[in-house]
Design brief:
Chain A: InterPro entries: Fe-S_Maturation_MIP18, FSCA_dom_sf, MIP18-like, PaaD-like, Zn_ribbon_PaaD. The complex is a heterodimer of chains A (161) and B (250). Chain A has 161 residues and is of the alpha/beta class. Chain A is 23% helix and 22% strand. In chain B, 67% of the residues lie in helices and 0% in strands. The chains are: A alpha/beta (161), B mainly alpha (250). Bound molecules: zinc ion (ZN). Zinc ion binds next to loops of chain A.
Chain lengths: 161, 250
Amino acid sequence: MVSELQIWQWLEEVSDPEIPVLTVVDLGVVRSVKTNGDQVKIVITPTYSGCPAMQVIEEDIKQVLKFKGIDQVEVELVLSPAWTTDWISEKGRIKLKEYGIAPPADEVDKSVLFADPPVIECPLCHSTDTRMISQFGSTACKAHYQCNSCLEPFDYFKCLK
Amino acid sequence: MNKNLFEYLLRLGDDSLIIGHRLSEWCGHGPILEEDIAMTNMALDFIGQATTIFEYAAKVENTGRDADALAFLRYEREYRNVLLVEQPNEDFAVTMVRQFLFDAFRKPLYEALQNSSDTQIAAIAEKSLKETKYHLKHSSEWVIRLGDGTEESHEKAQYAVDTLWRYTDELFFENEVDAALQAENVIPSLIPIREEWQKTVTDVLTEATLSIPQNGWKQQGGRTGLHSEHLGYILAELQYMQRAYPGMKW
Ligand SMILES: [Zn+2]
């Protein structure tokens, strides 16, 4: 019989298919792990409703655990409580930055129109002289920024609350 | 099966599916690259919401039809979306005004549905609301930019408001389905939601220097399956693969 702690450690080997530097644990999409004899039940939650990564994540979890000798894995997708960017781990935030994606910052209320976008530090040169190019970026969870100092474009993992 | 609940889920799901499909039509045709990406991002949110809603609807119906069958294998008259969401994209102004009129409705609706006595509906609303806030901010800002922009953008935005206004009344359509579900606290009354919609729309259109049409003539039908000619064309495209190759998967 395998411990829940062991399963959590193994889940650290499952990376997010779109941001491979993050594990599904870093991202905060794994909500719970329960073992019952040889059976393992894992509850995950999507980042965005249409996140195409969820099916891949489910398959990857099963595959990694199968490789560890666990065959009876049930993965359940729950919507509530809804995922927020606050659930990205501290370790995950550091990894994001090193990878070149600015981690989520606190943002102003979205009901305020034309509010200044949050000041985001360039993950490459650390300048705070950056500008938002687009609220919507390469995936649902990212906005597109550009650094005015080193001129490099970069992704910002936008705040979802 | 709870027929009223199933019917209501089709309304929610079909609104999301069809407006998501309309937004996806901009893929590769956006006026600027950033908007192309924004519209397809939003399309993905809507299709994702529709998937979750249809999965639940399939469970409620409990006849073996799955979410894909609900999305792709119904006939036109079985779709329950409002006429507003099936209206053609025309130009960017029409698309953004249509989006704004819809987002301004969806936000207070999801806020209220978070308190649904049906836990799955509450969960879907809680999840979708976070995305909807981004959508409403985006579409509101564009309506203001276009309305209060150049002479040409103002003209196009006003045309969009004038053309689409007749379809807004149907957002607040209610019948015995709503009454039954409201009695069980599954869904809210649309009266306070309409008030909030009215306020958002008035604030944004005023800021955009656009005038609110006074014409009282309203078009309805979608909620009861009577659609404009446009839905048939959408379905022809949406359902082509499943009709040509029944049961195909990839
Ligand atoms: Zn820089």
